[in-house]
Amino acid sequence: MAKVDVKQLQGAHRAALRMSAMGMRGNDIAAFLGMSPSRVSIVKNSILGKHKLEDLCERADEEAIDVMGRIREMAPKALEVLNGLLEDTMLDARVQKDVAFGLLDRAGFSAVHKNVNVNAPVTPEYIEELKKRAQQEGMVVTSETPQDDEP
Questions:
Q1: Which of 12, 34, 111, 134 could join 139 in a cystine, given CB atoms 3.0 to 4.6 angstroms apart?
Q2: Can you spell out the DSSP letters for 45-86?
Q3: In angstroms, rounded to a whole number, what is the distance separating the alpha carbons of residues 104 and 20?
Q4: Is 120 helix (H, G, I), strand (E, B) or coil?
Q5: How many degrees, rounded to 5, is the angle at CA 69 between CA 64 and CA 74?
Q6: Half-sphere exposure (CA, 13 Å, Cβ side) for 50?
Q7: 99-149 pLDDT per residue, tens
Q8: At what angle do helices 47-87 and 93-106 cross, to 10 degrees?
Q9: Rounded CA gap, 47 and 54, in Å?
Q10: Distance of alpha carbon 22 from alpha carbon 14, whole angstroms
């Protein structure tokens, strides 16, 4: 019978519970930790495992709430910085444009994306016309290759 290091086993159980609290699936946890999926399930569903998992989830929720609060506190300063970028005449216009579009997008004023589907037959003549237009626009470079007219 193989020897089992109790401290390592307990550490693996805690790791399995942490991974579960982060949203990982049992099979993925098992593969990552080198455990069987049934062992991960037993750990998660044990009384101690359920309590630990609940505690981990509560702490994660509290940390998320703290981060959200810090972001809210920093938001006015971030807006000042963005406003400064928009008003900076020495800044590249493309950077200013990106800042402006980012602000508009986050404010709910993003560009309308419209998809239009056209069902039309594509003939060989139409394809040749497209090729010619692409060549005229410099989008396609053709090479001269000799072709045999023999079958």
A1: 134
A2: HSHHHHHHHHHHHHHHHHHHHHHHHHHHHHHHHHHHHHHHHH
A3: 37
A4: coil
A5: 125
A6: 4
A7: 888 888 888 887 777 777 777 778 888 888 888 888 888 776 665 555 555
A8: 130
A9: 11
A10: 12
What residue type is assigned to position 57 of the chain?
Answer: C
Number of H helices, E strands in the chain: 6, 0
SS3 content of the chain, % helix, strand, coil (to 5): 65, 0, 35
Question: What's the CA gap between 137 and 133, in Å, rounded?
Answer: 6
Residues 48-65 have pLDDT tens digits of: 888 888 989 999 999 999
If one counts every other C-beta atom within 10 angstroms of the C-beta of residue 40, the result is 27
pTM: 0.46
Which amino acid makes up residue 101? F
